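step 4 of 6: structure.
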Amino acid sequence: MSKRNGDKKEIILEAAKIVFAESGYHGASISKIAKRAGIGDGTVYLYFKNKEDILITLFHDTIHNKFAEQVEQAIRYYDDARLALLELVRNHFDFFGRDIHLSRVIQIESRQSEQNVREGMKPGIQKYFRIIESVVERGQEQGHFRKDVSSRNSRKMIFGTLDEMVTSWVLSTKEYPLIQMVEPAYKLFIQGLLECGKSDGI
Amino acid sequence: MSKRNGDKKEIILEAAKIVFAESGYHGASISKIAKRAGIGDGTVYLYFKNKEDILITLFHDTIHNKFAEQVEQAIRYYDDARLALLELVRNHFDFFGRDIHLSRVIQIESRQSEQNVREGMKPGIQKYFRIIESVVERGQEQGHFRKDVSSRNSRKMIFGTLDEMVTSWVLSTKEYPLIQMVEPAYKLFIQGLLECGKSDGI
Amino acid sequence: MSKRNGDKKEIILEAAKIVFAESGYHGASISKIAKRAGIGDGTVYLYFKNKEDILITLFHDTIHNKFAEQVEQAIRYYDDARLALLELVRNHFDFFGRDIHLSRVIQIESRQSEQNVREGMKPGIQKYFRIIESVVERGQEQGHFRKDVSSRNSRKMIFGTLDEMVTSWVLSTKEYPLIQMVEPAYKLFIQGLLECGKSDGI
Amino acid sequence: MSKRNGDKKEIILEAAKIVFAESGYHGASISKIAKRAGIGDGTVYLYFKNKEDILITLFHDTIHNKFAEQVEQAIRYYDDARLALLELVRNHFDFFGRDIHLSRVIQIESRQSEQNVREGMKPGIQKYFRIIESVVERGQEQGHFRKDVSSRNSRKMIFGTLDEMVTSWVLSTKEYPLIQMVEPAYKLFIQGLLECGKSDGI
DNA sequence: GATGAATGAGAGTTCATTCAT
DNA sequence: GATGAATGAACTCTCATTCAT
């Protein structure tokens, strides 16, 4: 049955997520993944071409199909780009804050892979990049956001900051909830480092 | 002689840099590195404990001893934190823009490593983190930078943005000089996304 | 029904013939054979013990039951051993010239098998060997064929030559019809290499 | 030292010969070969690309470099093609009669290999083919051998017969020395099956 | 100090075979 | 009878590391 099939693929992905998070991408052998999934080594190859394929699928399912999709939906009904950006930031931290294993895989392990794999992860990230950039562009059109910095570069700041904050949290002891980063991140995006109303950027 | 010794160690590090950049960390075998360095495989083990050790040393030498050191020197004579930050940004892009192989290793390959290695790279990054944070704190004391965002979080934005911009450049076709990212990065840091004097962050 | 049963067995053998010919004995997986036969992998095991069994059956059916049988019938009504030999040669090339897939399996792939399999192919070949030898012996009794070479050795020449000619054809681009080898083979068998009436064998 | 290198390669080939002969090409694992050679598994890969490479080298060394070479030398000083042919036959059986393991590999196991391998064995066999054909052609020019059968076809008879006789001996209990096949083979080549001076080929 | 041949643990992967459905 | 998902033994091959020279 297709039900079954989906189930087993899901089971393998779930097991792989845990193993990748705990042993790292290169320390994760097919054998370990299979054992954790409670299946035979060979069975993995019925559902995935190889270890790369597992990581790519995990990444794509997560980032392209779930995360980027969810963000897109979440900001759909905000007209003001500033509010849309706030919602985007909230979603980012909310998503990664929910599943520490997943976050570890996405933030750390997925970057430990060959050219090959990174190629397979591109569509997912780029979908997210385009979402961020479109928010920035909307803000520029609305006259809220500066136009002397390209939306591409603004996106690099936004994504770079969010990414660094999540990575930092993943590698930390996680004493604070990730969601509490929404406020500082948003403030920095909007007004930068400047003391409000008091100072200028020289 | 320690002179000689230093020489050979340097030669190996230089070779490793190229091989890591071209083949990736996991695709780089000791054999390849030794061949490129023009020495025997076994000789590598006279200077390094293992492959991990090479990467850690390469990273530490570069980031802790050269890069962070150089940044520290460069901002030493700026009193105004805003100008110090500008100089820091300039140094960051200047440093990584000069050596594409090195940049690739630092931005991409060094993240493809085990817990172990990342542990060894910590001192270097943290030295740089502290430099950034001290600039921010100085700005706060001077009344230029906001105090409602911690220096730690501001640092995450600054480092995250710079890092993302370098990574983006490394993975691109490098048609633009990295140094031209100084201006957009600095602007975003200082005033964020807002249109100057026209808009507010809601 | 035995009819049905026979049908499916036949279908599997036919599929196996093609797959063996195209992928080689060792490159032919049960899975490939089943797919080609349009049945499930497991079904193969209802009709055959294993892959070896398929090859042995294919060989035996072909060589013992069809080919040797047909040759035996064909030479039955020739009294003169020389004419019987000619007919045997004609049959040999005719049979293998008709089915290139089969020829490939018999000439090439069936020799890529373990002791085991070769054991199972013996009865078929030996039946053919006995046919050849009996023709030679008849020729000796009739005073046509030499008696200073044993029928066993003469058979080795005859079979070795025919076999080499078929193999050669199978591995070639097959621009010539195999049947045209009847004449040179027969001539060489009968009078050997000597120029007729002119020369002696020293 | 190059001496050493040659030694170890030779040791592996010798071990492989025995293992191929005893377990068959497909039953021979690299592990078995290494164990028999008294070396580590990995060492095999310092000298050979893979199992195929071992068989190809074994075959080429034996057939192209030793056997065909030796035959070429042996017949060099015979002017009369009939005597050259006799010497060729003698050499063939002498060579294969000396080393039963080698014969088994050449006659049986080397035919159990993929397209790939057979391609690598071609140069060796074809060198031998050309030697046989050149003897036949010389005989034709001398007026001793028939011209109504091409040298190519005559070669197929000669090689096919010799090959079949060796195979037959290899698969037998080897109660007779292979060298005693020289006489019947030569007789059949020269005068075929006909009773001398008494009969005709119809 | 320098070498590089040798090692063997351990990875990925295939596929004949089984068995619950 | 028919299926094909699941299995796991067994294989090939790589490469960090050692050590006799």
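step 5 of 6: annotate
 - The domain at 1-48 of chain D is CATH 1.10.10.60 (Arc Repressor Mutant, subunit A).
 - Residues 115-141 of chain D form the longest helix (27 residues).
step 6 of 6: archive
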